[in-house]
Amino acid sequence: xxxxxxxxxxxxxxxxxxxxxxxxxxxxxxxxxxxxxxxxxxxxxxxxxxxxxxxxxxxxxxxxxxxxxxxxxxxxxxxxxxxxxxxxxxxxxxxxxxxxxxxxxxxxxxxxxxxxxxxxxxxxxxxxxxxxxxxxxxxxxxxxxxxxxxxxxxxxxxxxxxxxxxxxxxxxxxxxxxxxxxxxxxxxxxxxxxxxxxxxxxxxxxxxxxxxxxxxxxxxxxxxxxxxxxxxxxxxxxxxxxxxxxxxxxxxxxxxxxxxxxxxxxxxxxxxxxxxxxxxxxxxxxxxxxxxxxxxxxxxxxxxxxxxxxxxxxxxxxxxxxxxxxxxxxxxxxxxxxxxxxxxxxxxxxxxxxxxxxxxxxxxxxxxxxxxxxxxxxxxxxxxxxxxxxxxxxxxxxxxxxxxxxxxxxxxxxxxxxxxxxxxxxxxxxxxxxxxxxxxxxxxxxxxxxxxxxxxxxxxxxxxxxxxxxxxxxxxxxxxxxxxxxxxxxxxxxxxxxxxxxxxxxxxxxxxxxxxxxxxxxxxxxxxxxxxxxxxxxxxxxxxxxxxx
Length: 549
What we know:
There is one protein chain. The chain has 14 helices and 21 strands. The chain is of the alpha+beta class and about 550 residues long. It has a seven-stranded antiparallel β-sheet with strand order 16-14-1-2-19-20-21. Strands 10-11-12-13-15 form a five-stranded antiparallel β-sheet. A three-stranded antiparallel β-sheet has the order 3-8-9. Strand 5 and strand 6 form a beta hairpin. Helix 1 crosses helix 6, helix 10 packs parallel to helix 13 and helix 11 packs antiparallel against helix 13. It is globular and about 80 Å long.
């Protein structure tokens, strides 16, 4: 997500200073040959301090000739104009359509002077995503639709990276506007079937083989426009989209590419060598994609969205900023100054300001209505529960309906997840084990039940009874959302009771509160502060002020 990030300096401000008008997202990608079950998977986190987490739905429809489709800017809801509607649009659940096409994004802003200066451009980056999902049957078709739309109606956003996946392949496309000229320049790369990839608010496509028409697509003026504007003057084969249309510094490497690097190192033992690029110790860029040492499972993809740089030099649970409870979160602003030098907080994949996120699965061996599963979660990816919804679902569960970021509702999945997460932000290492028990139980149950659920769904689809299919996925979707929401509503209350007043009530192996032989609650524990450094720093700061004489 974004709100007009401009240039590398503004991007850094967005990530480290925490401007109220700047948000940032993460996409992780695993192509079909890199996954344990052969599915194409991608993830997306919509990170914004002002974003309510709800499940988008656009129903399939047939439109009268001459109909128009209104375009509103995704971030602001500002009307941008209208475009001719197509005759038929497809069912869209979240960021995935009934043909298993899924699209995500991350914003990098790029050169300020390339933002639209005409005021006439209609297509912002969010509208490109949802219009393409309404109209495309494949990833390649979605790519063509998106680039055609900006050519016809102009591009109203800044620099953007898109992930475009279907059941057979996945592409990364990077795009930026042309200032006073209509349209955009762009380049797209098909990720090899045996590779994993990612992007996180940094353009990552550099030198490519423009002769490889099967795996590389681009606007016809992507190089010539850069030459005209003075962004590039080398040989065509030396051209780098990322370096021509954006500027990079140590901050963007650490705050943006660092999230991709920590994903890579989970699955490739040699990926640690790219830390030199992330830490600004080398100017050799990290590659766009790598080949994993082992194939990636759905559970591992979900777990990657919970990354907090564990086991790396940036581990957010270990530095002094984590405090005595090893809290892996840092509040905004994320840049500060000491003795005239500027410092930063880490920006991990998991972050408190996420509105919603997903892991999509596209599977070519199943009928589209069953093969496309949209694993959706609200709020912080670290503590959320990913719930499975099928791409033919036509009714959004009540717990995932639109809401208001300023209006609390205990019936809302977004709000109960926020309550649980915000409780843990105070005493993380004490509370996270209890959260993991509930989270893992729900997600393991959802994953383990898929084969039986899908066996029934396939039979229904193959019998041609689509009304029964829709009734089944709507009913199951409602049950899943209700179960996850109820479990976290109960968890929120449990955590409050267990850790009330800084104590920790004693529980048995099943988490039940222990009572005495006379039926009274036993006396609680006093866990105190779990980091010795906390006490040492008090003494360093206060000397003998607290000394017991």
